[in-house]
Amino acid sequence: MKYALKTDLVTQNVAEKVDRPKKNDYQPVFLDADELQHLFEVVKGTKFELPVLVAAFYGLRRGEVVGLKWDAIDFERGTITIKHTVTSVQMDGKTKMYAQDSAKTKSSMRTLPLVGSFAEYFKEVKAAQEVNKKVCGNCYNYEYDGYVFVDELGNLMNPNYLTSQFPQYIQKHGCKRMRFHDLRHSCASLLLANGVPLKQIQEWLGHSDFSTTANIYAHLDYSSKLSSASAMVNGMVLPETVSFGSKWSENLYDDEKNRA
Question: Which of 4, 74, 105, 108 could make an S-S bridge to 208, C-beta 3.0–4.6 Å?
Answer without folding.
Answer: 105
